[in-house]
Amino acid sequence: MLPCSVKNLGTKQVVWRRVEGDKVLTIGTMTWSMDNNVSMEHSKKSKDVTTWNLILHHVTPEDSGVYECQLTSRAGHVRHVTLNVVGPPLTSKTAISITGRRYVDQGEKIFLRCNASGGARVPDEMDWFKGGDKIDENKYKHVQIYKIQSHAEKYFVSELTIEHSSLADTGDYICRSSTDDIANLKVTVLHAESANKRRGTNQGDNGTHKSMSSLENGASMTEASTNQEKDGAATIIVSKISLLLTLLALLWTHQTSLLAYTS
């Protein structure tokens, strides 16, 4: 608890902020930080004095630093409080990532998993956004969000599911933790024609079929040409044999005539 008491506050507001990073934590009784470990304890001590104590739950060495309690007035009334947290060495920064398919066919399921693990503090909450708009299950009725958190194993997992995707579900999906860690993944829902072009299924199959048909036709033409050449060669051989037999017959007839004349 970081104390701050104010006398004669009037219409002014009390603002708590962390000096490092100039991060506003509370304004009046409202908490401005997304970190659920921050809260405000407000009470009235007397007629003129009120307390505005900043409460930090589950503090770690990362919370060490200078905090400022300030009034929203031109006079600039400010109180600084230094917080020192003694503990084990700081662990690595929380790692956050989104896994899932970047391309899905229209009607298929979209399943994204956001995993925040490591770090000194497990996120208290995880929110999903699409195109800068926070995904609320009441507004996005076709979207289901399931969350798993473990302080012992230091992880927070949030799963986003859309059972039957539409073209309108295309967009940049952002996962943001309460510790301001962000990850994003662009998902594209493909129309049937776009999906076929991307995969090359229709045109590729038709092209393959046409190529095979062309090859088969070419092979048939080559075979027919070869058969014609064989038939032509056989015809020439038969003609030559017939001519040779005719010449032999003429020679035989001529020789027989000479023998008869000599006798």
From TrEMBL:
PROSITE patterns: IG_LIKE. It comes from the Eukaryota. Residues 194-227 are annotated as: Disordered. InterPro entries: Ig-like_dom, Ig-like_dom_sf, Ig-like_fold, Ig_sub, Ig_sub2, Immunoglobulin_dom, Zig-8. GO terms for biological process: synapse organization. It holds the Pfam family ig. One of its GO terms (cellular component) is neuron projection membrane. Residues 201-227 have a biased composition (Polar residues). Residues 1-84, 88-188 form the Ig-like domain. This is Ig-like domain-containing protein. The lineage of its organism: Eukaryota, Metazoa, Spiralia, Lophotrochozoa, Mollusca.
